Every structure is written in C-alpha cells, then in structure tokens.
Fold this protein.
Amino acid sequence: MASGKVRDYYKLIRRVTAELDSGSPIDRFSATVVRGIARSTDGSASLLLLDSTGKKLVHSTSWKLPLSYLKKGALDAKKSIGETVKKQPIAVPSVSRSKRLQYRQYALDAGFTSILGVPILTNGKCIGSIRVYLKENRDFSNNEIEFISTMASLMQLALEHQKSINQEQRLTAIEPEEPKILPMLTKVKFVHPSEEEFASILDFYNIEWVYEPKAFPINWSENGAVTQMFTPDFYMPAYDLYVELTTMKQRSVSAKNKKLRRLRQLYPGTKITLLYKKDFERMLARFGYGPLAQTKGHGVGDVLYSAAQIQRRVHAIAKEISRDYEGKVPVLIGVLRGVLCFMSDLMRNVSVPLNLELMSMSSYGAEEGGVVKITKDVGMNLEGRHVIIVEDIVDTGITLTYLINHICLKNPQSISVCTLLDKKARRLLDVPLDYVGFEVPDQFVIGYGLDFKEEYRNLPFIGVLEQKLEA
Ligand code: IMP
C-alpha cells in the first residue's frame, strides 16, 4: 500500500481523536469521520445507526451518496449485508453478483461496484454501521478494513459519550422539584380561564395541585441540546398525577397526544392524563358552569339497561356481598341522592345483617369559591367496622376519592366500594372498585336515581339523556 495512504489514515485518526477529546458536537464529529473515510478510500461513505426499535438501520451522516440511494428507505438490520448480525466487517466485492444486498438495484443505479460494512459495537452489541461504497472493481485491503474498524471504534466512543450527556440532561430535567405553589396560599396566573375553573374544582374537593409544575424535555438535537419540552398544566402530588387540559380542536389535540405518548415513552413511571375539551365541559356542566350547563334535557335517547336487567345485576351483586361478608355486619354508606334506588334494592337483597348510613355533600357552585362540605355526615361510630361505600356512578373518581379519604379518618377496619355504574373512560383519579354493576359508555345517563338538573330520577330504567342547547 502506498505510504501516502497510510499517512492519510494516521492523520485522520489523530484529527478524530483530537475532536473527540475537545468534545466536538456529535453531528460535526460524525461528519469528520464519514468524510475522512470517503476521502481516504476514494469512495462514498455513510454512518448508519439502529433506530429506537433496534430493527432498522438509518443513514445518519453520509458523504457522496446520491440522494436517490439515500431515499431508498431504512435497512432491515437483520437482512442488511450482515455485519450487524455477524458483528464483524463484511465486504460485498461485487454488487452485481451479490444476493445479500437489500437494495441491490439502487446500488447498481448509483454505480457502486463494491461495498464494505463495518459494525459499531458497544459491549458486544451492534448499534450501527459504517459503510463504504466504491465505484471501481477492487477488493478492500486489510489495512483499509483495519483503518475503518478503528474509525468505527472511535465513533462508538463518541456515541456513548453523547448518550451519557443526553441521559444527564434528561435526569437533571426530571429531578423532582420542590412543590412550588399551593393555590390556596399563592395567587397563580393561569394562561387559560379553563385552567382556573379546573383549579377551583380541585380546590373544592380539597385536592392539592401545582400549576405547570415542570417542563419535561422530549426531544433533543443530535448534539444533545433540548429542542422540545412538554409542560403539563397540573400536578396533583397526592396522586402523583399530571393533568393536561385541552380546549383545542381535534387537529391540535392529535399533536398534543403525540407529545404525551413521547413523554410516557421517555418517562415511563410518569402518570399523565389528557382531559379533553368535551370531558372538561361535561365536568363543569355537572356543577352548572360552562357552555354545556346551558343545555336542556330533551328526554331519553337510548335505553341502556331495562328495569329487569338492573334487577338481575343488583341481585348478583347483593349475592357477592352476602358471600364476602358472611359472619360480619357491614355498614353500607350511600351518598344522597343518586344512590337512592340502587341502595334500596341492594340492601333488600343482601342476606347478612347490615347497618345503613346516608350522607350528603354540598355541590360545587352552591357556594362560589368554597370547599366541599359534608352537609350530612355518618352518625354512627365506624371504628373497627367493615364499610361498604355505595355509589350510583363513578365518573372522574373525584367524589369517591374524597369520600374514601373522609371515611378513612373514622378508622374503619375495612373499606370497599360498590357502584352501580362505572364510567371508566372518564376516570381522572384511579379508585379501586370492588363491586360494579355495569360499565357505561362516555355519555350522560339518567334514571333509576340518576338525574339531570334534578329531573328523571324516577325512571325505572337507565338511559342516555338527549341534550339540546337552550335557545
Ligand atoms: P365523579 O366525582 O366525577 O366520579 O362524579 C360522581 C358523581 O357525579 C355521581 O355521584 C353523580 O352524582 C354525578 N354523575 C356523574 N356522571 C353522571 C351521569 O352520567 N349521570 C348522572 N349523574 C352523573
């Protein structure tokens, strides 16, 4: 081999190690490596990296590769020329005769006659490849292969270094912060009025919250700089839950959903929920606020469960409770008024002796800016008792969470929850349900005790409310 070539190799190795030492950004470093290899082999070169699925090899930086060749798409790592599987340099001395090239025609169209692939390995695992493409019919020399393998090792060091920088940035970004603000103490400046309304509902239920608690980095440039952040609107420390409100149109919601998926992927332990405009408006309407509060009931749409179906299900639940509480005397606690029909049918079908308690709570909006008030509390001593909370419907789970916390303070021996209806799709706070009658769709339901603006409670069946905006 010509001594000039060897000198070129040494020069390039020196330059690349100096760049590595000076902490050159990864994109600049990759370009130096790829360009240097292409020049010293009189060919074209490319750095391919495994994508996040570990199945595809994607061109990351290339030199003198025609656009038509780059556009051929990602390479299947398993089907690629093999160095990723065999973990050693693999040469294709004749593109025209090769059977193992995935995009042979593209290579032929680009005028390539031979290709060399050298794996980039970390702890014996292949994370990418350096490819060299020649337009002349010749074999790659051992020196050439040695030189490109050395470059692949330096590339691996740079990639690993970059990975640790990214991780560090991610870690500092997700370092838990001191809760900054408690709304009851500090006046928060909300970006959107709906956020303020949501905060007042949480205040009403005595749920601690933090507004825009922190920013999660979700995208980085190749040199590790954060290019995109996601700041959820609320954090509820007691439930370790982030909530993002969206009052936007469906098209923008899709982009938000994408960001949320990315956040969940990057920070798998983080619980975050998106509250859609429709759900939020329904939540407000329940308390007499927001645009949906202006709707009028226009009778029943679909009947979801007939009186007979309800009775069958209530009997089945009562049987389960009777079996589970054999030898005990549970206290059934219901919250007025929606639970009335369900409670009276349920208790009459439970065969073990039981006690009954009814509670009532003031509803949000009754007193502007107030907090939830138990207007009728449990009268009996619950210490050491087995409590069954009986609910008509669990929607966001906020009421039930509040109730469980309230009853816990009375030191019962156990608490379980029995609900006739479970509107699971709208759950905000995760609450354990022990007995469930029916899982209902995400629609406003009425009848069998459930009301809309105090009407429809006396229907013997459960149906969907037809709503129309008031003229
Ligand atoms: P949560 O706090 O969001 O789980 O709401 C529970 C309470 O909201 C129930 O006890 C009901 O009073 C009321 N609610 C929720 N969804 C409906 C519905 O579809 N029809 C009637 N009342 C409902």
